[in-house]
Amino acid sequence: MRILSVSDYVDNNLLERKDFLPSHPDLILACGDLPPEYLTNLRSFYEVPLLYVEGNHDIRHKTSPPVGCTNIHGRIVLEQGLHIMGMSGSRWYNGGIHQYHEKEMKKNIRRMWFQLLQHKTDIIITHSPPRGIHDQEDPCHKGFRSFRNLIEKKKPAWFIHGHIHKIFKEPAERMSTFCETRVVNSYGFFFFEN
Description:
Blueprint: E1 2-7, E2 27-30, H1 36-46, E3 50-52, E4 70-71, E5 75-79, E6 82-87, E7 90-91, E8 99-100, H2 102-110, H3 113-118, E9 123-126, H4 145-154, E10 158-161, E11 175-178, E12 181-185, E13 188-193
Parallel strand pairs: 1-2, 2-3, 3-4, 6-9, 7-8, 9-10, 10-12
Antiparallel strand pairs: 1-13, 5-6, 11-12
Helix pairs in contact: 2-4
């Protein structure tokens, strides 16, 4: 399956030419901090399902959700044979929307354990990274330790996140491996095959 992941930065090249990508995606995964109109337009342009989680700046999604797209925060969905889990938000830093203390995120994941026991998890999408993988030391951009634990227990093939703004010269720079899971910073966009 060909997958386009996006987060944090609107890249209009994705909406101008379908041949901008190596091939047409079968699925789009959005990892937060993108305008709902952009997500709606991506889904319409490529005419494929778009699953998303919300970031700490997604304040309009509740009143103006992206049309035809599916918010998978706190859920596991089956899409084209893949079990995909989603978790919105960043670390708490000023009390804004979609911000969580470590204990709160751990509790959010614990609420999902029945689903996690029932299904293999192929891909996890989040806004924030796992702690110590692609994250930063300021209060807003620290990752979640509970995401590391989740990777260790569920061993998904992919863990895709946003939130950490960085320009990459080549695709390999945005990817790390942890417990055999490929952890990808989706800033801007990342195209991959599963």
